[in-house]
Structures are given as structure tokens and as C-alpha cells.
Write a structure and sequence with these properties.
Helix content: 40-55%
Radius of gyration: 24 Å
Low-confidence stretches: none
Strand order of the largest sheet: 3-2-1-4-5
Distance between the termini: 82 Å
Structural class: alpha/beta
Number of helices: 10
Mean pLDDT: 92
């Protein structure tokens, strides 16, 4: 009995590269347009899948080369620029396998994808840590000192889990907080462990800001995540600051509200 077009489409949707190779030979001369369209779609899907696997392998290889094969902790920060909420640091030590598919700069991923990846990263990691620096500390110490403090705490938490990194990979410019520090500009899109750190930090901070939105309604923290959106700035001018605002970041808006 000849297979229907729908049956063939379903098989092609589920086929891996090896099965597709067999199916493509079998169906190459099938005259039905639906079959040929399904073959093209499956080929494009598998090509994109192979490209993504190569991209992920490159993330792991790039950082392994930087560390000469040593143990790596990747670090990244989220929340450097908002008017409210903490500075959040993620730190992740990944095994060389299994490789986590989908890793990328957290800003390039959808919230749904980040939420799917974050628990997988935590389950796969040899060690991970998340550090929050509250707004009051940012006001008192300044951002540069808070960054060094947060990264140092994150590395200490990793080591407390029994993992001793040979290399501390840091996204962005040098901070000179650790003698093992290696800096990678745009590291969250080049290094697997930095990508992972950026994702868990982003998911953790976003969840915290959602909680703050319930505690301090009217500021739109659930959508702005504390950044200076027009609605957030308008709320500051109308309602003043909450305990989670960074006073040193909000002076201009408070002065404007007086006139």
C-alpha cells in the first residue's frame, strides 16, 4: 500500500539525518508535490540543526582553547544599568559533555527559551552560583566595586562546592578581581560557560523583579525589570522611590518632578 503524503510528511518531520538519507533516496522520484516539498523542508530542518550543533561545539571549543583544557568558571552580570533592583551575577562550571544545545547570549533568547534552559544548565553544571548585590550597596560602593565584590563572591561559592577553577572567564573588560581572570569581549556569545551564566542570572533576576512588581505595584517592574522605561520614569516622578530603587541612578528624575 502506497504511503499517503501526510504519512510521509510525519516521518520526515521526525527523521534524523541517517533516516532522512534513506528516505530521500526512496522518495526522490515520487511525483507528488507534497512529498517533494516535505523532503525540502526536512533537509532544511536538518541543515539548520547541524549548523546549530556546530555553533554550540564552537562555544565549548573556544573556551577550552582559552583555558588550555583546564577547569573553567564562566561569569556574567545582569542588571548593571537599571534604576531599580539588584545587580545579579551568574557563575557556571560546565562539563565538556554533554553539551547544552541552545546556549547563547541571554539577550538573544526569548524568555520562554531562557526559562527552559536555566534548569537544564543547573542540572548539567558541575557547580553554579548566583549572587545579588542590593541597590543600597550599589549606592554606597558604586558599580565598579560592586561588580568586583559580586564576581569574587560568585567564585568563592563555586570553590565552596568543591570545584577549583583554573581559569575565570569574565564577559567584557578587565576588572582585575582574580589572578585567574581572562576577559572575553562579547563572551556571552562566544563561550559556553559565560552564555550559561548569563542565562541563569537573567532568569533569576527577572523572576525577582516579577516578585517586586507585586510588592511595589504601579512601577511596571514586571515589564521593565527595573530599567528606565517611560512608564517607570513617570511612576518615579509621580510616586517617588521604593526601597529597591538605586537612589544614585534616579536623581535627575526626582529633580525633574520638583519643577
Amino acid at each position: 500500500m502506497k504511503q499517503t503524503v501526510d504519512d510521509i510528511k510525519q516521518r520526515l518531520k521526525q527523521a534524523d539525518a541517517k533516516e532522512f538519507e534513506v528516505l530521500s533516496r526512496t522518495l526522490a522520484d515520487d511525483p507528488r508535490k507534497g512529498v517533494q516539498a516535505a523532503l525540502r523542508q526536512a533537509q532544511e530542518r536538518l541543515r539548520a540543526q547541524a549548523d546549530e550543533e556546530q555553533r554550540i561545539a564552537a562555544l565549548y571549543q573556544y573556551e577550552s582553547d582559552l583555558a588550555s583544557g583546564g577547569v573553567i568558571v564562566g561569569l556574567d552580570e545582569v542588571g548593571r544599568g537599571p534604576l531599580a533592583g539588584p545587580l545579579t551575577i551568574g557563575a557556571v562550571v560546565l562539563p565538556r559533555s554533554p553539551q547544552i544545545q541552545g546556549l547563547n547570549d541571554s539577550k538573544k533568547l526569548t524568555p520562554a527559551t531562557r526559562s527552559e534552559l536555566a534548569p537544564l544548565i543547573k542540572e548539567t553544571a558541575l557547580a553554579y552560583a548566583i549572587v545579588h548585590i542590593p541597590p543600597a550597596d550599589i549606592d554606597e560602593l558604586g558599580m565598579s566595586k560592586c561588580l568586583r565584590l559580586a564576581f569574587s563572591r560568585a567564585v568563592a561559592q563555586i570553590e565552596a562546592q568543591g570545584v577549583k577553577p583554573d581559569v575565570v572567564l569574565l564577559d567584557g573588560n578587565p576588572l582585575h578581581f582574580d589572578e585567574r581572570e581572562v576577559n572575553v569581549v562579547k563572551g556571552d556569545s562566544k563561550c559556553a560557560s559565560i552564555s550559561a551564566a548569563s542565562i541563569i542570572a537573567k532568569v533569576e533576576r527577572d523572576s525577582l523583579m516579577d516578585d517586586y512588581a507585586l510588592e511595589y505595584p504601579g512601577y511596571g517592574f514586571e515589564s521593565s525589570k527595573g530599567y528606565g522605561s517611560a512608564a517607570h520614569i513617570a511612576a518615579i516622578k509621580e510616586k517617588g522611590l521604593t526601597p529597591i530603587h538605586r537612589v544614585s541612578f534616579c536623581g535627575n528624575f526626582l529633580q525633574e518632578s520638583l519643577f
